[in-house]
């Protein structure tokens, strides 16, 4: 898919009360237009964010989350996961997802939908079931069918299968692999194509594939095999969960994106954040800014990379502290919803690209 031509965009600032972005003069003396506006000018389809249900009572957070000039795309962080969508067998609940999907649609934001088949956040009835290959296959198809048909044309893309590989390139020994064998992946993609709306992009999504390594090469081999066998797949999502001091360089991210570019697959950075080993410091924030900018620039420069989604934009909501004790401050806005150096560095880079 060719990048969307960076359309001329008005500088009209969409700032829903009570959140009013601080004025920031970019090199061309433009007031702060918003990251999505600048990303589109730089040739990306969107700059987006994950949005979590846990803070939907915070009006300042919500007004930024659905500010389409800032984030032209939204991903429910949790609401579309199996444990919330189908908490009991064949009982479906879309309320958590709708709390994000509906306002996003009303705000004019594209929606990435996340995720059909994953080893995590499964309800107990799936994890503890006494399944045969036949019965679990029917359960997986029924789940995908119901969720895909509910969201139908609402998703620009679905993360059909999430995190199916290990770092060494082998397949993760999930319940899906144990009971159904490796074909659960292609079956999930076939059902996703069958039951989602026309034009929905079907992505494989994973972390640790932002360098050329055993894992990204294994994903590329799977994608190549799917293409050869007409198994529907449209894109690969590189989650891009990075750590200051250990993050891939611009060249490394570009090379990983190019693995899939060469297969004419769409790519996207789907969960970008850059965690810091606390305590934080101005120096660490400058390094964080460099990592965010390098990753975003790599997506801008690689033809089939269509967009960047940050895995939430507000530090207090980030998954990082719970998962990586001692790390935090991974997002673009700090506890006070103030932009950090990383925000301004991305903004400056996108503005400069657009002016070339
Ligand atoms: O739903 C319960 C709620 O009922 C309870 O009151 C609350 C108490 O803490 O916990 C809630 O569940 C939490 C859930 O997020 C919803 O907020 C879980 O404890 C928490 O572990 C879970 O974390 C999520 C994590 O996936 C689970 O692995 C993060 O928010 C979410 O950002 C993160 O996202 C994943 C992507 O889906 C896939 N890629 C990796 C990324 C980071 O793990």
TrEMBL record:
Pathway: Glycan degradation; xylan degradation
EC number: 3.2.1.8
Keyword ATP-binding in annotation: no
Pfam families, A to Z: Glyco_hydro_10 (PF00331)
Residues in coiled coil: none
GO biological process: xylan catabolic process
Localization: Secreted
SMART domains xrefs: Glyco_10 (SM00633)
Catalytic activity: Endohydrolysis of (1->4)-beta-D-xylosidic linkages in xylans
One term under GO cellular component: extracellular region
Domain GH10 residue range list: 38-349
Signal peptide: 1-16
Similarity-based family: Belongs to the glycosyl hydrolase 10 (cellulase F) family.
Protein name per the record: Beta-xylanase
Provenance organism: Periconia digitata
């Amino acid at each position: 898919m060719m990048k969307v031509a960076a359309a001329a965009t008005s500088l009209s600032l969409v700032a829903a009360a009570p959140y009013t972005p601080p004025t920031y003069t970019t090199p061309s003396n433009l007031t702060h237009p918003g990251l999505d506006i600048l990303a589109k000018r730089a040739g990306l389809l969107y700059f987006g964010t994950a949005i979590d249900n846990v803070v939907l009572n915070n009006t300042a957070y919500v007004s930024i989350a659905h500010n389409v000039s800032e984030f032209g795309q939204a991903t429910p962080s949790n609401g579309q996961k199996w444990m919330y969508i189908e908490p009991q067998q064949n009982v479906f609940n879309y309320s958590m997802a709708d709390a994000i999907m509906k306002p996003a649609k009303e705000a004019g934001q594209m929606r990435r939908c996340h995720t059909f088949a994953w080893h995590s956040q499964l309800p107990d009835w799936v994890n503890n079931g006494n399944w045969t290959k036949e019965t679990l296959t029917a359960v997986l198809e029924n789940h995908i069918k119901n969720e895909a048909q509910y969201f139908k044309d609402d998703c620009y893309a679905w993360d059909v299968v999430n995190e199916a590989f290990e770092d060494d390139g082998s397949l993760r020994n999930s319940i899906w692999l144990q009971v159904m064998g490796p074909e659960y992946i292609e079956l999930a993609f076939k059902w996703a194509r069958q039951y989602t709306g026309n034009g929905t992009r079907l992505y494989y999504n994973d972390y640790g594939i932002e360098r050329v390594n055993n894992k990204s090469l294994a994903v590329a081999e799977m994608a190549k095999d799917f293409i050869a066998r007409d198994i529907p797949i449209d894109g690969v999502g590189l989650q891009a969960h990075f750590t200051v001091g250990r993050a891939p360089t611009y060249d490394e991210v570009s090379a990983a994106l190019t693995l899939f570019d060469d297969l004419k697959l769409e790519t996207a950075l789907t969960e970008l954040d850059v965690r810091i080993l606390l305590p934080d410091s101005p120096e660490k924030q400058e390094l964080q800014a460099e990592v965010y900018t390098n990753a975003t620039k790599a997506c801008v420069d690689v033809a089939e990379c269509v967009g960047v989604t940050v895995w939430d934009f507000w530090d207090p909501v980030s998954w990082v502290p719970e998962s990586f004790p001692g790390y935090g401050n991974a997002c673009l806005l700090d506890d006070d919803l103030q932009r950090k150096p990383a925000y301004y560095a991305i903004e400056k880079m996108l503005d400069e690209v657009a002016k070339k």
